[in-house]
Specification:
Blueprint: H1 2-31, H2 33-63, E1 67-68, H3 70-99, H4 110-131, E2 139-140, H5 159-173, E3 179-183, H6 190-203, E4 209-216, H7 221-231, H8 241-253, E5 258-265, H9 271-274, E6 287-292, H10 295-300, E7 305-308, H11 314-325, H12 327-330, H13 333-345, H14 350-360, H15 365-376, H16 383-400, H17 405-414, E8 423-424, H18 425-434, H19 444-460, E9 465-466, E10 472-474, H20 477-489, E11 496-499, E12 508-509, E13 514-519, E14 529-530, E15 536-546, E16 560-568, H21 572-575, E17 583-587, E18 590-591, H22 595-600, E19 606-608, E20 616-617, E21 629-631, E22 640-641, E23 654-657, H23 668-677, E24 683-689, E25 705-711, E26 730-734, H24 738-742, H25 745-753, E27 756-760, H26 765-770, E28 777-779, E29 784-786, E30 793-797, H27 799-804
Parallel strand pairs: 3-6, 3-7, 4-5, 5-6, 11-13, 12-14, 13-15, 15-16, 16-17, 16-18, 17-19, 19-21, 20-22, 21-23, 23-24, 24-25, 25-26, 26-27, 27-30
Antiparallel strand pairs: 1-2, 8-10, 9-10, 28-29
Length: 805
């Protein structure tokens, strides 16, 4: 009996313990209600901070064109879902609980309080789990776009093209032919056709890789290699052509099926020097397709099948013309018949059709009639003899219809550059200023805006083309040749370009007002270069070597002189008679003592030594009292600027002083000069070592554009730099304290005008950000901010931030 009582007592005791555990747990939820709620809120804040940091990195990577990892995207979605949905339910329940009482109305509702505490505890655990989730990487590089995706929309379908395209695609997909060419006259649409072929082949997945390079009249093998390498995602880092060719050939041999497109081939190419198979065949399944204006070149390149691209038929030409102008214009009763005749005069050349159609646009009837009269002047010439002239007459008409003399002048300046050249718009500005254009605009930065506006106009008229280089344009070779012909017809024609091969050791007399000379190398020098009417001279060398002083004699009217990649050991003799010079560009040059040019060239307004080897800016520079722009960009051997020289330049508007290795700590006099200039400068680029270099009372009230890099003295890199002369205002400050920024008047002024603010290792960063503007809201811990200032980008690279991360 006692045994049974003992057993019963044990069972009851055990049951009591089992019943007490859940009761205790329930009481814990009630007792720790406030603790659970507060823990959930704290963990929510922690998660939001982590989310803000991740979003900052995601936004930065997206701006740099990188793809965000899917697990990161999913994590951000989960966080948003928890915050927007789950937490709202808990908060809503908490609000209800505060207003809900038990039956007597005096105590909280314990059941509801228990449930809410339990939910909060569970939610806190979920928030911690989300916050502590790790990522191997936030983003990854975007895959290379397909070549076809970089082209504009497809071409209009024409019967004369469709059959050719069908057969070319068939031959490229087959195994019989390995080299195929498309030939035809300039402007017939070979390049456009090739681009459409590439799109078709990419859609059909006919090749593993497709690469394209533009060759042009004078093949630049290094550039051809670079274009092919870029489309294949290959970085060519060898110095010699042969080394780069080996890299390229090795890469191509690893691709099973590849199509190489060489566009605009004028002469037989050395495939081995480029890095292409030179035995007449690629490996099985791989092909070479090239275009040329010369059928003989196609044969010399061992083309196995040559497709000739004809001009458009009369019906096709009218369809293209009508689509380009717009049916609402050409279908007008008073315009229709004239428009058809104008289209006929274009002789089926697509480039001529599009060019003249854009030129006429919404013009009145009398303009159309005048255009037809001008085109008919060449109608008596037989079609075969007139084909090239037809292009000329159409583009001449487009040129005449510009209606803006400044735009015409700018187009002529573009003709001075080699074919397929990336023409810097800034050089067009500096040449124009030197020739006396834009005087009505006053400041140079206003003239720069005008030049870019004119370039946009010319691009819309298809007389200039976009370039892949920042703030550069290209010129279609047909347009360029035509405009050169137009200029050469005029007496003392403005823009005429000569290849340097036309210059021998004999005496030359030219009456043109602008000449551009391009040398592969200088083998002979003329005894004399007589240019009594020359106002602009431009000289390019592909490799740096000395040039005879005879080039510069008898040019007393010269106003613009641009030299690239030359060696000029003695500066005195060449510039002695150039006392009318207003713009001088000695860029990428090796020069001697430059003090002598300042004694002779008192009319200079624009002076550039960019990327040249000058070591000293002598005191004589101060004599250039009319100088408005001084460019010393990347003159990295510059070690001395004479005291007072900058202060003497009373008309200086723009100063470019991005120079590496310059010992600012020893140049207090230069900083004093800069202070005296500060009120008149409108554009400034400067790289200095340390914020303490700036005088504390220096002011930049009148700056319109600036790119200022206050860098760490221990580094040579400027870091984040401008990509062009219209690039947003940059202020980069590296390794300083908040008080240094606060005490510097110039930096404070620049902060308010900055469009890209790059702060690196700034101590007490949060104080800087709070003081930028009253509307700034900053989370100093993670770099989150909002602002109403004009700043377009904001870069935070702080050691403090990385430690917290």
């Amino acid at each position: 009996m006692e045994f049974l009582v003992a057993i019963g007592t044990g069972i009851v005791s055990k049951l009591g313990e089992m019943l007490m555990d859940p009761v205790t747990s329930q009481f814990k939820h009630l007792i720790h209600y406030e603790k659970n709620i507060n823990k959930m809120k704290n963990e929510l804040n922690n998660l939001k901070d982590r989310k803000g940091a991740i979003e900052g990195m995601v936004d930065a990577d997206r701006r740099n064109g990188r793809h965000i990892a899917p697990n990161v995207e999913h994590w951000l979605y989960q966080v948003d879902n928890v915050v927007e949905n789950e937490l709202h339910k808990v908060y809503d329940d908490e609000l209800v609980n505060k207003n809900k009482k038990c039956l007597n109305g005096l105590c909280p509702n314990l059941v509801f309080r228990y449930s809410l505490s339990k939910k909060a505890g569970k939610m806190a655990q979920d928030l911690v789990s989300l916050k502590e989730q790790k990522f191997e990487f936030i983003s990854y590089p975007a895959p290379l776009p397909t070549l076809g995706s970089t082209f504009t929309e497809g071409i209009k379908s024409f019967a004369s093209r469709d059959s050719i395209m069908t057969e070319v695609v068939e031959k490229l997909k087959g195994d019989e032919l390995h080299r195929i060419s498309l030939c035809g006259m300039g402007g017939v649409g070979k390049t456009t056709l090739v681009k459409e072929l590439i799109k078709i082949l990419e859609a059909d997945k006919a090749f593993d890789e497709i690469s394209m390079a533009i060759v042009s009249q004078v093949p630049d093998y290094r550039k051809i290699q670079g274009q092919i390498g870029d489309t294949l995602g290959l970085k060519l880092d060898k110095e010699t052509l042969q080394g780069r060719a080996s890299q390229l050939l090795e890469r191509l041999n690893k691709i099973n099926k590849v199509l190489l497109v060489l566009d605009d081939v004028w002469t037989e190419l050395d495939f081995e020097l480029i890095g292409l198979p030179s035995n007449g065949h690629c490996q099985k399944g791989s092909k070479i397709l090239f275009t040329s204006r010369n059928e003989d070149v196609c044969h010399r390149m061992r083309s196995q099948r040559n497709f000739t691209i004809p001009v458009l038929s009369k019906e096709e030409a009218w369809d293209l013309f009508r689509d380009t102008v717009g049916g609402h214009v050409v279908d007008k009763a008073e315009i229709h018949n004239i428009a058809q005749e104008v289209a006929n005069e274009c002789r089926g050349l697509p480039i001529a059709i599009v060019t003249i159609a854009k030129a006429l646009g919404n013009k009145e009837k009398h303009v159309w009639e005048d255009a037809l009269d001008q085109l008919r002047k060449s109608s008596l010439i037989s079609f075969s003899d007139m084909q090239e002239y037809s292009i000329y007459s159409c583009i001449e008409l487009s040129y005449n219809f510009l209606g803006n003399e400044e735009a015409k002048f700018l187009l002529l300046l573009c003709c001075l550059f080699p074919e397929d050249f990336d023409i810097p718009i800034e050089v067009l500005l500096r040449y124009g200023v030197g020739l006396g254009l834009f005087k009505d605009l006053g400041a140079l930065w206003k003239a720069r805006n005008r030049v870019h506006t004119l370039v946009d106009t010319l691009k819309k008229r298809f007389l200039l083309l976009d370039s892949n280089e920042e703030e550069c344009v290209k010129m279609h070779d047909v347009v360029r040749d035509t405009v050169v012909t137009i200029a050469s017809k005029e007496e003392h024609g403005f823009a005429v370009k000569y290849d340097a091969g036309q210059i021998g050791s004999k005496e030359f007399t030219w009456h043109h007002s602008a000449i551009s000379l391009v040398f592969d190398e200088i083998k002979t020098h003329p005894k004399s270069l007589q240019c009594p009417n020359l106002r602009l001279l431009q000289i390019f060398l592909k490799r740096r070597e000395p040039i005879s002083e005879n080039f510069f004699h008898n040019m007393s009217k010269l106003m613009v002189f641009g030299i690239s990649n030359l060696c000029i050991p003695s500066m005195s003799s060449p510039f002695r008679s150039l006392n009318n010079l207003c713009t001088l560009r000695l860029e990428d040059c090796q020069v001697g003592d430059i003090s002598v040019i300042c004694n002779e060239l008192r009319k200079l307004e624009v002076l550039s030594f960019a990327h040249s080897n000058i070591k000293e800016l002598p005191v004589e520079i101060g004599k250039l009292c009319l100088l408005r722009l001084l460019d010393l960009t990347e003159c990295n051997e510059l070690d001395q600027i004479s005291p007072g020289v900058l202060a003497s330049l009373s008309n200086l508007e723009e100063l470019y002083l991005r120079v590496r290795n310059f010992h600012w700590e020893e140049k207090n006099s230069i900083l004093a000069d800069l202070k005296s200039l500060s009120h008149q400068l409108k554009v400034l680029e400067i790289s200095i070592t340390g914020i303490h270099i700036f005088p504390k009372d220096l002011e930049f009230k009148n700056l319109v554009k600036f790119w200022i890099y206050v860098r760490d003295p221990t580094t040579l890199s400027h870091g984040f730099v401008r990509r062009g002369y219209l690039h947003p205002n940059i202020l980069k400050v590296n390794s300083v304290y908040h008080k240094d920024i606060k005490e510097n008047v110039a930096i404070q002024q620049l902060l308010k005008k900055s469009e890209i603010l790059n702060l690196v290792n700034v101590k007490q960063l949060e104080n800087v950000l709070y003081e930028l503007d009253e509307e700034v809201i900053v989370s100093a811990q993670f770099g989150q901010f909002k602002r109403d200032m004009p700043c377009q980008e904001f870069h935070l690279y702080s050691s403090m931030l990385w430690q917290l991360e």
